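call fold target=TonB dependent receptor
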Amino acid sequence: MELGARYDYFKTEADNLDEEHSDNAFSPSAALIWKASPDLNFTLRYDEAFRAPTSEEMYTSGAHFCMGPGFCNTFLPNSDLKPEESQNWELMTEYVMSDVLSSSDALTFNANIFHNDVDNFIEQRVDDPIFSPIPNPGNTYYRNIDKAELQGFEVAMNYRFDTFNAVLSYGQTRGQDKKTGEAISSIPADKWVLDMSNSWLQNSVKAGVTLSRIESQKHRPNDVNTEYEHYTLVDLYTRWTPRDFKNFTVDLTVNNLTDQYYRVAFQQLYMPGKDIRLGVRYDF
């Protein structure tokens, strides 16, 4: 059994609005762990959580995206946002199979289901633009949902052979306003992920590819009519950590290798194409 607790305090200030907000919360947690066998274990968790609204959620203003000169969706600040407070239940299981195809491999299965009750859930809303009879680009804003319910699950399979590793996972989340039964707009769509990687030179070099399939978003609020189609992303990554300099790391990532343009759910913009990033880190 595990017991824990967390204390949070936050304070935000906006000089241009002459406002400041602060709050605090004490959040307990507990977990029951049952090791049914050397290869199988179950964990039941209960956690309470507190999330303060960010400065971006409370105070952002200006243009969000434009659909032509002078026709821009704009952010509306909402300094009255309340912190999210949630009660979360999660059941997790893990099963490990060793020596599946050889003496140096292993296959791990993970599954978890969760149910969260959230007070003052912070949701982002993006208005659909209106082009006629009176054009209106709409607004983007954050608001609290008094009582929200989130539930879902994730399953994953991890196969490891020597220095090769492959993980296949699928996850889905459903969220709704408990008072109206309406879907929550900021809940992500169902997602498949396949990640394959290999290491060389005594694990000092690691490279891999990630394939992500995001399904079409069918669970939309009643006032959102826009279709959000499925899309697939291909990401490449590599990491080099010299054996003689363990604190030094170089990362190179190529996100969205195929220049896939896709629409972010419940937003009126398309994400850009390929994104290449190089990172160098030294930990003292």
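return ok
The radius of gyration is 23 Å. Residues 188-284 form one domain.
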